[in-house]
Amino acid sequence: MKLQVQQVSVTIGGTPILRDVSLDVLPGEFVGLIGPNGSGKSTLLRTVYRSVRPAGGVVRLGEEDVWSLSARTAARRTAAVLQDSPVPPGLTVREVAALGRTPHQGMFERESAEDREIADSALARTGMLGHAERIYGSLSGGERQRVLLARALAQQPRLLVLDEPTNHLDIRARFELLELVGTAGVTTLAVLHDLDLAARSCDRLVVLDKGEVVAAGPVLEALTPEVLTDVFGVSAVTERHEDGIVRVSYGARPLARAS
Q: pTM of the full predicted structure?
């Protein structure tokens, strides 16, 4: 399902955070949202999963304004994996994944055999079914993120949003998690802070700076040397190597970022 963000503006405490931001994510596409700290990335994501209401503009999923949907309907269509997603203590991996079925259940409805099958299928897709009976809190950081992704996939969403899901993970876990996201077949918008990881993993990138979109498009078009210098303050180039992987190669030292 297509996501459209159209001229979205957000002001918090009298301070403009986003200014007329527009972007599209096509069905099945994996788009990375990147930019320096304080550029408005997480705030924009929050307007998409209905945590922050925009002061202007509209967020559409398919043909519908997400803010016109009921909370229940919105939860069925959009799943979020956040940096510090709260999980009740003492739950097993299977129980955490099963929480993704909550939006599809009635208030007094118990978990069905179909719900269990869907949750287990999501765990299998993320490589965590073999850990189903382990306590979630006993897992490594990378394993916990896989379980949270399984919970999100168990929602059977039309849109998946991720807010820096690879924070605090080692290099291998970062690549593995985003590879799973890229093969999930769900329209995805993800805030990422690692430029090289974003370049390798995403179909397209949107670059935010000071609350505005300053570049967008396929990776090689969005992450030009000029953008890397002006926005991120680094001397770098983005290149497609012989193996087909796009990589960001950095210069010897960071540059002073233009004011």
A: 0.90
